[in-house]
Amino acid sequence: MKPLRLYRRISCSDGSEQRGFDKHCSDKFDSDEAAESVAVPVNPFATKFWLAGVLEYRFTDGESAGTLLEKIRQHRICQIVGPKGSGKSTLIQTLRHCCGDSVCFLDGFEQLPFYRRFGYRLGWIRCVLCVHRPLWGIPVLYRTVPDFTVFRQLVSELYPQSRFDAETLRRVFSGSGGNFRTAFFELYDILIKPY
């Protein structure tokens, strides 16, 4: 596979953004050669393109952010459960955009000291916990599950001209144990390898 040859987005004088350099952005540079001399290859699987909050969470089971918000209003405290890299942080960011400051979202709840975890479990404030294993006595709001179909959608969204075949993507996804983060790191490495 050939190494990646994409270029960063350029802001044009008309307020639009273009990927690469075309006629719409010609006013930014004296010549096409000058434009190409400042081009910097970017990898669509760099962390900044898929970090939590950049992409919307993809629901596969008929749920939506609206139905989860209704469930949050019914409980003082609830939890989002799922393995590492399955989209828990992305889901929290998606919900945070809908809720604003009315709900406290705690990503990495298991890493808090005991006394802080105890205080949140008392339900003094409305909060949603993000955990890897279900906590006893707290209702489960949603379970994130790694899904190969969602992974393929994300790859085609991040890298529209992708020439990855389904077998390669399946190998990367299963090799990561269903961890989207690890799979994207693997795709990043595949794209920067020289041919």
Provide a brief overview of the structure.
The chain is an alpha/beta fold and 195 residues long. 38% of the residues lie in helices and 12% in strands.
Mean pLDDT: 79
General shape: elongated
What is the count of DSSP helices, taking H or I runs of 4+ residues? 8
Major β-sheet annotation: 4 strands, parallel
Residues in β-strands, percent: 5-15%
- Report the helical percentage: 25-40%
Q: Give, in spatial order, the strands making up the sheet with the most strands.
A: 4-5-3-6
- Topology as H/E string? EEHHHEHEHEEHHH
The helix-and-strand class reads alpha/beta
First-to-last CA distance:
6 Å
In terms of per-residue confidence, which ranges show pLDDT below 50 for 5 or more consecutive residues? 1-13, 18-30, 33-39
Radius of gyration: 21 Å
Task: Give the beta-strand count.
Answer: 6
Number of domains: 3
**Oligomeric state of the chains present here:** single chain
